[in-house]
Amino acid sequence: MIEAGFLDLWTTVGVAFDLTGAIAAASAGLWLWPRRARLGRTGAMVLAALFVTSCWSLTLAAAATGTLPPIVASLFESARNLAWLVVVLRLFSGDGRDTTLAPIRPVIIALCFVEMLHLCIDYGLLNVALPISAQRVAFEFNVMFRLLVTVGGLVLVHNLYAGCSHEARSGLRWPTIGLAVLWAFDLNLYTISYLAGGWPTEIAAFRGLATLFLALFIGLAAAGNRDELRIRPSRAVTFQTFSLLVIGAYLVGMVAVAQWLSYAGGNFARLIELAFLTLASAIAFVVLPSRRLRSWLKVTLAKHFFQHRYDYREEWLRFTRTIGSGGEEAAPLGERVVKSIADLFESPAGLLLTPSDQGEMTLAARWNWAEIEVPAIAMSMQSQSHLERTGFIVDLDAIRDAGIDGEGTPQLDTPPWLLGDTRAWAVIPLVHYERLVGTVVLARPQFVRKFDWEDFDLLRVIGQQVASYLAENASQIALAEANRFDDFHRRIAFVMHDIKNLASQFSLLARNAELHADKPAFRADMLVTLRNSSEKLNALIARLGRYGTGAVDKLDIVSTREVLGAIAARYRDSRQFVLVESPDLDITANRHSLEQVLVHLVQNGLDASEPHSPVFLSVVADGLHARFEVLDSGCGMSAEFVRNGLFKPFVSTKSGGFGIGAFEARELVRAMRGRLDVESREGLGSRFVVRIPLSEATNLYHNLTKNDQKVA
């Protein structure tokens, strides 16, 4: 009883949809009658086909209720197919291709012949009593003939639209879509019927929907604004739909193979069928969620279904969400810059390189790429100049291939560390007002493809936008540092004022003591103490007056041995400090400033080292410079801190530190025409290198300058 009720339900649904389809086809025909001229020579045949289709839907409903025998519905279905095949032929002739495409007429004649065979089989089944086995064979032949007609009709519809001219597509778009819907539904219906060996009542109940869509699209074909109508599915909808189609095709294929195995498997048919279904399901669970497969699907759909590869609105919204995300949990700007560009190609990782204070390109940020080793100087000045001048987007795979065959290599000195790492895929320069503010290195995505003009255009636009963010961020940081310096100078001004007053009081006290002290011994001690204090305070005032400017009083010829001797005397009670035997060199520097720099570096090394770990100080001649080295084996510093925090004022790793010592040391070295470099590894230690010009180099420079002035 339950099964009968269930079948009655589907019969009722089928009758309702069939009547709806009949009404829709008849309404479309009536509406189209005064407008048939819009369809040209095909208008009258389309009206006839709609009338036949409406009658077919009515006979389906009547056959389902038992009013008419099923042979009548089958007869009208054949008439429907023949009518629409004639419409397709008229559409070919309307485009002028019926004379150039010779196979069209034979195909249609063959399909008409198949329909006639189908009618003969139906008539034989109705009038001749056949055994059950023969009836099953006849049923399969019946379904096979229907499949041949639907497949042939779909092939004709595809060739009709795919081969038409650009001008004719606006008139053919909607009729071909309607016929594709009608015959595609029949294709699935008869395929399932053939595989199941019986009529699928539940699926057949929805045939009226296919008729409804056909009538709707035929009406659109005759609409006055048909040229303005477009189906514009979003890329996300297209991708999801195509993914469902792929999964559906996979499942249908899996069921078909399983059905074939059940026929050919013999005694172990059921076991073989279950084993195949298990294996196919396991493969589906592994392959279908694959990121590589999804990337391939997106590229394929973008290439064949859309005029442009990218959905620029969606890409721009995603870019702004990524680059503009804020809050405490947001990633640093450098990582967001890399991610915003990597998302365009589904790249899993990337790097951001930015110019250092010296101008060389150094690592500024990583995104999901911790294992790659990036040298201190990541890119040569020649490469930076080339990228800045041309904005060239580097395809590293193309350069690797060109390195083999010697063709197509761009004029770029590509760093070896990039070519050596096979994950490195592309280099995108970030240019802001003709100035290179950074470079993004992308890792290889799951699905790799060649860059084309659309990729380059989008990357240039995104690169310019990202460069403006980086430039604005650098300006904000510089402005914040300037504000903090202003505040620092205001504080120091008060301190200097107080110390000056104290120094004046001490000086006055010393003069009064010289005149009024009674005891010579006390007077002598007091004078020495006060004079020393006065000298120290005045020296402190002088240093505070120079603080933050990096200025030195004057440059003289200084002996390195005297400088190292003064530092050794300062740390003579420390067992950690080790002065390496070094040559005596004459340099051009300010002795007080140089001692201040070296004392700061040595003291930092002592603070960062264990009590038993030595800190070495040495000097050697290095070309035109004297190279001072301070080496320790302390806790070390990370590469990110060295690049982004060590020489930034007010950034300190010490509790309560002011964070200005390293910055001041570098500025003092620069004021002496030198350079301060650092190499450090966490857990291994640090190596500070101070280069100061030799006196001979300074004399040579002055002589050359004087000669140039005389020539000028």
Summarize the structure.
With 712 residues, the chain is α+β, with helices and mostly antiparallel strands. The chain is 63% helix and 11% strand.
Explain what you see.
This protein has helices at 2-32, 43-65, 70-94, 104-127, 132-162, 169-196, 201-204, 207-221, 235-264, 269-287, 291-305, 312-324, 333-345, 381-390, 396-405, 416-420, 453-516, 520-546, 560-570, 591-608, 639-644, 661-671, 695-711, and strands spanning 350-355, 361-367, 394-395, 424-432, 435-443, 556-559, 577-579, 586-589, 615-622, 625-632, 675-681, 685-693. The protein is built from 23 helices and twelve strands. The chain has 712 residues and is of the alpha+beta class. Helix 19 (560-570) packs across helix 20. It is rod-shaped, with a radius of gyration of 43 Å. It has a five-stranded antiparallel sheet with strand order 2-1-5-4-3. The protein has a five-stranded mixed sheet with strand order 7-9-10-12-11. Its EC number is 2.7.13.3.
